[in-house]
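A quick aside before the break. I want you to see a complete sequence-to-structure record at least once, exactly as it would be stored in a machine-readable document. Don't worry about memorizing anything.
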Amino acid sequence: MALDQADFAAPHRLEPHHLVVWTGRWYLIAYDLNDQCWRVDRVDRLHPRPTGRAFTPRELPGGDLAHFVMTSPDRGDTPAADWPCTGSARLNLPAQVVAHWAPGGSVVEHLDPHHSRLTLGAWSWAGVAGILATFDTDLTDLHPPALTQACQQIAHRYTTLQPTPPPT
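That is the input. The structure line, written in tokens, reads:
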């Protein structure tokens, strides 16, 4: 029996701040005493071990709970396993911008201040390509090859479009 790596991760000591629902999922906004920073975690991925220790609530940076969750690229999401097609691409956009618009069940990875990787699923490769196109930026490093092929097929369809004559 294989054990999940998360079972061996060091526990984080968190001071909970708020629960927020976004894209159909519950997220905990908390201050991490280990890393001394704010974090956002999916509630269904947490394994709480209450300590009963009291704490003084901290002020959330920016004060906007929804904005904080939407712009946090590391929310503990993983690609939804029920999509038949899951792919990824490097985007020429910062992770916090992509995280704001990425659909639920997708994963945004910070690569550097100007680039991120988005991993997401859809019912078809054209669907994944279509979602990536909504970011209106250059895409590189697409995986798997079926996603690259879908992007090329869509580009070909658009370059061969014929204008529709105006109604008479």
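Two observations worth writing down. The chain has a mean pLDDT of 85. The helical segments are 65-70, 95-101, 125-133, 145-159. We'll return to this after the break.
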